[in-house]
Every structure is written in structure tokens, then in C-alpha cells.
Amino acid sequence: MTYGSDMARAWGIVVPGCGRLEPDGSYRISARALECVRTAARLAERRRPRVVVFTGWSPVGGPSEAEQMRAAWRGPDPTDLVLEPSATITAENMSRSLPHLLERGVREVTVVCGTLHLLRVRYHFGGVYPGYGIRCSYAVARQAPTPAALAWEAAGVMLMRRQRSAALAEIATALQAEARIIASG
Predict the structure, then answer these.
(1) What range does the domain containing 32 cover?
(2) What is the helix (H) or strand (E) element at residue 19, kind and residue range?
(3) Which of 14, 67, 86, 117 is the most exposed place for a label (fewest CB within 10 A)?
(4) 93, 101 in Cβ contact below 8 A?
(5) pLDDT band at 183 (very low <50, low <70, confident <90, very high)
(6) Within 13 Å and on the Cβ side, how many CA atoms surround 67?
(7) Residue 149 to residues 31, 72, 87, 97, 120, Cα–Cα distance (Å)
């Protein structure tokens, strides 16, 4: 029966990055990001995704969050692992992962994030992806709430609406460019 295999191929995972500057000036993914990668790998063991998208940047050069998460991946092979190394905020994780999911026909995605990040992840991904035919679910990785993490998320909540508006404008621009290419070709 092809229905089951089609459904399995239509599912993807997105893992937004999270990192910190080290005393030596390098940028490394956080323990939370590593736990998100482990959670994504466990999900992929239970149900084979069509794609896993690791998304996130590096503010100082060197390996991006996406590259570091890919290096930490211990999930099943061959899984289509996509690196999106330019997103600097959660809204960009959402907008810049979307084309990778659409290209692969993904209609259901699980976004893996830390407990404190869930509010913003749901707002960005869950508020936009359904409009593109992608149903969202969420897997929460364990995260000890530190004062710094709470402050970071509180600040992020204050900026959510403006950031999502900018991300939606980015998506619209990309779709217009794609439509022009299709129309001319």
C-alpha cells in the first residue's frame, strides 16, 4: 500500500539552532541544541522523515549552528539532511526552512525546540506553515530554565510580531522571484 510510504515521505523535521560565544571567540551550539538534535534523531528512528532541516547561523564565522548540528547527528542514514546556515532568528528559521520543505513535498513537519522556545516556535512556524499546506507539530527537548534563557525568550516575545512580518515579506519576495523565473522559462 503506497499510502503509508507516501505519508512517511511527506513528513519532515526542522531543528532551529541555538548557540553561544565561547571565551576563545568561537561560536558553539548549546546543550539545548544538542538535545534537540538527539530528540530529532529519536523521532527519525521511529518514523523515517523525507528531510531533516538544521537551521541557524554563526555570528563570527566558522561552522554555523546548522553545520554543527549536522555534525552531531546520529540519526538514521540515508536521511536527507539539509543545512540552512543563514537564519539568525526564529522567524528566519521558519522562512528559510520553508522552501526546503516545499521542494520536497513535505506536508507535515515536526519542529524540535527547547521548552522555553516553544511559544515563539509555535507562533512563527504554526502561524505560517499551514498557509502553505504544511501541518505543524512540536517535539520539546528538555531544557533547564536559566535566568539568561528566560530573559532571552522574554525579549524574543517582545519582537515576535515585527520579526514574523519581516519573514513573511522575505517569503513573498522569494515566491515572486520564483514566479518570474517560471513565467520566463
Answers:
(1) 2-184
(2) strand 19-21
(3) 86
(4) no
(5) confident
(6) 10
(7) 12, 22, 19, 24, 13
pLDDT at 54: 98
Residue 46 CB contacts under 8 Å (≥ 6 apart), including other chains: none
**Residue 145: DSSP 8-state:** -
Number of domains in the chain: 1
CATH number for the domain spanning 179: value is: 3.40.50.620
* DSSP letter, residue 47: S
Element at 112 (helix H, strand E): strand 108-114
The position carrying cell 535566568 is 147
Residue pair 13/53 in contact (Cβ under 8 Å)? The answer is: yes
CA separation for the pair 163, 90 (Å, rounded): 8
Distance separating alpha carbons of residues 96 and 98, to the nearest angstrom: 6
How big is the chain, counted in residues?
A: 185
Instruction: State yes or no: cis peptide before 78, omega within 30 of 0.
Output: yes
Q: Where are the alpha helices (DSSP H) in 16-146?
A: 31-46, 65-72, 90-103, 118-128
| pLDDT tens-place string over residues 99-141 | 999 999 999 999 999 999 999 999 999 999 999 999 999 999 9
